[in-house]
Amino acid sequence: MIGDAGEIAQAVRAGRVSAVAMAQAAIDRIRAVDGRINAVTRLLEKRALAEAALVDQKVAAGIDPGPLAGVPYGVKDLFDIAGLPTTAGAGMRRDAPPASVDAQAIVRLNAAGAVLVATLNMDEFAYGFATVNATWGTTRNPHDLQRLAGGSSGGSAAAVAAGMLPFTLGSDTNGSIRIPASLCGVWGLKPTHGALPMEGVFPFVDSFDDIGPFTRSARDLALITGILAAKPLQMGASQDLRVARLGGWFANNLEPAMESAFADFCDRLGALPTIELPQVERARSAAFLMTAAEGGRRHLPMLRHNPAGFDPATRDRLIAGAALPAAAYLDAQDFHIYYKTQLDRIFETVHILVSPVTVGVAPLIDNPVIRIDGRPVPARANLGLFTQPLNFAGLPVISAPLPLADGLPLGVQLIGPPGSDAQLFAFAADLEQRGLLRAHICENPACP
């Protein structure tokens, strides 16, 4: 099984293991277990082994290959990879013109010595929270193959949770990194909006789109984020931070397992005050509206030209978004500005907020629903209940893994004001060291 990114890089730089051996180990692990999980859409074996050989050549010549020397990784299937079509999870794009250059995030990781091994499954055009894909199939949760991995970056989360890769990249518009990270039991980051490079990433909603990593540890999360940002993170100390828990909207509809796990987490942090965000339901509705409107407008030419090429579940939501009146979108934008101002005021009195990521554990594939206000609603559209109001304000959020609930992962959101990403990493690393948070990697993802 693949280890932590930082540990692999140290071993490769010291010559204790070759980058080619690590790339081959990742390829072999993917071939051994992905048939049960369906996280990988393309295995880039030739490229991976060539990149790894270059790392080994540098080591042999006494040249430092970089802080991610020989670390294998994968990317959600919406990052440009030179010579390949960027599918964005859409069957109609399997034969799209190939990208001419790699996405900027891949360029930076390659310069740091990382080795690209695979592209990873997602909801079509990143519109969903489930990774149920009409072309590439459903990604299964490594902890229980009868359950969803979450989405839209489900392949990225599942690949780390199943021990295929030490880290992966995904994208988050309304929760698409944090939800699968939570449901699969790994670390995930939604950075401050605009903090990480989006060049060469297939867009969905410009107002909210961000990229971020999935990892096995808080330390790796910080390491990789610093490389993506092209500057090391100055994390500093995590003492004397004022922390509060989110109540109201974020305390409702919790399944018993999540309610208990989150309460225990908060108790171990001390006597936390409770804060309620203003007009959260309206913020989520406005995020839904802006997502639908921007996504529908972006895809409108293809909706007119080839509607049958879309997954019907995606197509119908995009058509509805394209039909929204401009006045409704402008109203949502006005509220967007007001809402961010209100959250800025809250962060004048606290440094970090904490909340659950989802209402509970991963839903079953055969019954993909969650319960909101006592009613079953589709998981694909509603798992973002607690994540969408935070994207709406552009906040940085870490999805951190709580202890398992009857063998199934749960996650907590660590939330800060814009620009406080490094502070969040310091806090997360401290909690990981204290044993309050820990990733759950599945040794043998072969549940019945």
Automatic annotation (TrEMBL):
InterPro entries to which the protein is assigned, alphabetical? Amidase, Amidase_dom, AS_sf, Carboxybiuret_hydro_AtzE
Q: Which Gene3D superfamilies match?
A: Amidase signature (AS) domain (3.90.1300.10)
Concerning Pfam families, the annotation shows:
Amidase (PF01425)
> Which domain of life does the UniProt lineage start with?
Bacteria
Domain (Amidase) ranges: 23-424
Q: Which SUPFAM superfamilies match?
A: Amidase signature (AS) enzymes
Query: What PANTHER family does the record point to?
Result: GLUTAMYL-TRNA(GLN) AMIDOTRANSFERASE, TRANSAMIDASE
Please identify the protein, giving its name as recorded. Answer: AtzE family amidohydrolase
The organism of origin for this protein: Sphingobium rhizovicinum
